[in-house]
Design goal:
The chain is of the alpha/beta class. It has 2 domains: 158 residues, Spo0b-associated Gtp-binding Protein, Chain: A; 183 residues, 3-Layer(aba) Sandwich (Rossmann fold). Helix 4 links the parallel strand 13 and strand 14. It starts with 9 loop residues before the first strand and ends with a helix. 40% of the residues are buried.
């Protein structure tokens, strides 16, 4: 039996808004009032189904067993021109980074909404309008209308939800490269750590604080050769790499010493998987890290590896997630890279806005 609190990054749900309440036919009948006239009220509007981005959530598990969401109907109108009560709005909270697709449309169709900001709202199903009561139809020539309109039906939609975690930094690398240990070292997150492959089977987020600044780091489950085609944990978690502004690629020095692994080959293999999945990921800012350097007795081996990376134009950092060696300098480097990425994004957005303005003027 699966843990009901396990990481869920995909879900399907049916949302139905409320029907509008019916307008009614009624006439004013009071003692000593010679001409009462129509006074049937309008029906109330049906309730909306609204999706709301909530930073306190990080999975779609709330929808694991909630396959249908329905908002209440509006109430029918009343006498004396009273409008029926509107159906209550139903809010469905989703983690930031949720993509909402119309399940009736083919794959590849743009999302209805990408919930990327805290408190962002999207009306997934709008409630039906209330029907008009007979008081609305009184005219100088039609003094006693004996009809009213029914409420409009609500909307029903099948939605396909997927989650791409939002993080400033994504930790990538082969299984057991030490990503979870590093995240525990530099943040308050407590991902599972053990000495066997695929210890991490769900992405973890940690908030790192440095010099009164904060940024978010995601521990992406270990990738292997063929991940882009579904091998290992497959491309299911590769999607979470897309959101990261900076990629920190961990290479396991321990695997080199104990298993004779060629870390340059490992590095190329992971890069190849990123390229197969989404080529533009290769242009993302990257920090290469040699982890578990505390296991190296002969630092000449380390220098040789650093030289091999340098020949490829890569200036690698040396750390030990277990002892903390080099972690403070790495955090500083992460923050600098994030700042540079944000500046580039702002410059790109400004250029796009200027271009739109020029096109509008012309």
């Amino acid at each position: 039996m699966k843990n009901p609190h396990s990481f869920i990054d995909e879900a399907r749900v049916s949302v139905t808004s409320g029907n509008g309440g019916d307008g009614i036919v009624a006439f004013r009948r009071e003692k000593f009032v010679a001409r009462g006239g129509p006074n049937g009220g309008d029906g109330g509007r049906g309730g909306d189904v609204v999706l709301l981005a909530d930073r306190n959530l990080n999975t779609l598990s709330e929808l694991r067993y909630r396959k249908e969401i329905r908002a209440p109907d509006g109430k029918r109108g009343g006498t004396q021109g009273k409008t029926g009560a509107a159906g209550e709005r139903v809010e469905v909270r989703l983690p930031i980074g949720s993509l909402v697709h119309d399940a009736a449309l083919p794959d590849g169709t743009p999302a209805l909404v990408d919930l990327t900001r805290e408190g962002q709202r999207f009306v997934a199903a709008r409630g039906g309008k209330g029907g008009l009561g007979n008081a609305r139809f009184k005219t100088s020539t039609r003094q006693a209308p004996d009809f009213a309109l029914p409420g409009k039906p609500g909307e029903t939609r099948e939605l396909r939800l997927s989650l791409k975690l939002l993080a400033d930094v994504g930790l990538i690398g082969f299984p057991n490269a030490g990503k979870s240990t590093l995240l525990r070292r530099i943040s308050a997150a407590k991902p599972k750590v053990a000495s066997y492959p695929f210890t991490t089977i769900t992405p973890s987020l940690g908030v790192v604080e440095h010099e009164h600044r904060r940024f978010v780091v995601a521990d992406i489950p270990g990738l292997i050769e063929g991940a882009s085609s579904g091998a290992g944990l497959g491309h299911r978690f590769l999607r979470h790499v897309e959101r990261a502004r900076v990629l920190v690629h961990l290479l396991d020095v321990g695997a080199m010493l104990l298993e004779g692994r060629d870390l340059l080959v490992d590095y190329a293999a992971i890069r190849a998987e990123l390229e197969r999945y989404r080529p533009e990921l290769l242009s993302r800012r990257e920090i290469v890290v040699l982890n578990k350097v505390d296991l190296v007795g002969d630092r000449e081996q380390l220098r040789s590896l650093l030289a091999g990376l340098h020949e490829r134009g890569i200036a690698a950092k040396c750390i030990s997630g277990a002892t903390g060696e080099g972690s403070a300098a790495l955090v500083r480097c992460m923050l600098d890279a994030v700042d540079s990425a944000v500046e580039e994004e702002r410059a790109s957005e400004a250029a796009e806005n200027d271009e739109r303005s020029r096109q509008a003027e012309s």
